[in-house]
Amino acid sequence: MIAVLKQGTNDKQIENLSSWLKAQGLDVHISKGSDHTIIGLVGDTSKIDEDLLSGLEMVETVKRISEPFKSANRKFHPDDSVIRVGNTSVGGSDFAIMAGPCSVESEEQVMEIAKAVKAAGATMLRGGAFKPRTSPYDFQGLKADGIEILLKAKAATGLPIVTEIMNANHLPMFEEVDVIQVGARNMQNFELLKELGRTNKTILLKRGLANTLKELLMSAEYIMAGGNENVILCERGIRTFETYTRNTLDISAVPMLKELTHLPIIIDPSHATGVAKLVKPMAMAAAAAGADGLMIEVHNDPAHALCDGPQSLTPEAFADVTKAVRRVLAAVKED
Ligand code: PEP
Ligand code: MN
Q: Which of 140, 236, 245, 299 to mutate to test the pocket of ligand 1 (most atoms within 8 A of CB)?
């Protein structure tokens, strides 16, 4: 349920109304827009007397939110959420570019890639330290050592780092990580999501291999329900009957999610296609469709990468992609 307040309602009145609603066992989200303030109510709103609420002097309208996602709902928060990460942000007018290897392999490898992607315009460094591999015999990542290497690259370049968590017990290792990624395979690991909801870390939530947008938003809701509103959504392709590409990139997810939620949405064209040469056109398409950013796999020696070499760009190819994306962004920018 949301209550749209009349223009001119002051902070004291908003506070009084919030305390009254909280006393009835509800969570209250306040969104101050340019014209109106919206109070979002989460919890069992069946106890609320709708007529009483809409009859209050300061209340313009009261509406029930039919969707099961509340905190993530754009009706609760009409303006785009802008999530600050280090000295950069995701959402709003900024375009985030997260780039780096699929997995952290060595300090030399990460340092070289970090410097190259920064020079090419990346705003964050990605790299997997804990890898969710289909086969238990494949490289599983350098784990804690991998995070240490990422932190060294962060210190050297100033780029905030993004890395994946697979187990909530590992959270202490992520203290200095800027963005914690929840991979596609863990999108519905609800216990992990609840635990992340109790932190104030920025969470990059990837869409599951076979999950609907509603399910993605409900997973975001798990994190937000715990009090952590710093969630970035990521479309990374879904599984279809197509075999020429690793997954099928659902570009329509961007405008659809933009309508449904205020959370930023980025695209990962690397996992979406699995093919390095398809990354550039899909990155351009993402920028044209209104995505808030990209996550791209870059490797200094793709042929010998320990993970996802075929979809990894060389630093030169990545630089070409960022230039093309900037051209698209300039072309679609509205005055
Ligand atoms: C990754 O980003 O390295 C990764 C494993 O992605 P996904 O969870 O989308 O497969
Ligand atoms: Mn990968």
A: 236
Distances (CA, A) of 330 to 313, 325, 326: 23, 9, 6
What are the domain boundaries of the chain? Answer: 2-63, 83-334
The span from the CA of 133 to the CA of 55, in Å, is 56
Give the pLDDT band of residue 221 (cuts 50, 70, 90): very high
Token pair, residue 180, equals 């914690």
Judge contact between 117 and 110, C-beta under 8 A.
no
| Ligand 1 pocket mutation pick from 164, 186, 294 by most atoms within 8 angstroms of CB | 164
The 3-state DSSP class for residue 291 equals: coil
Query: What's the mean pLDDT when you consider all of the chain?
Result: 96
Q: What are phi and psi of 326, to 5 degrees?
A: -60, -40
User: pLDDT digits over 240-251, tens only?
Assistant: 999 999 999 999
Q: By CB neighbour count within 10 A (0-12 exposed, 13-18 middle, 19+ buried), where does 95 fall?
A: buried
Residues forming a β-bridge with 4: 38, 61
Top-level class of domain 2-63: alpha beta
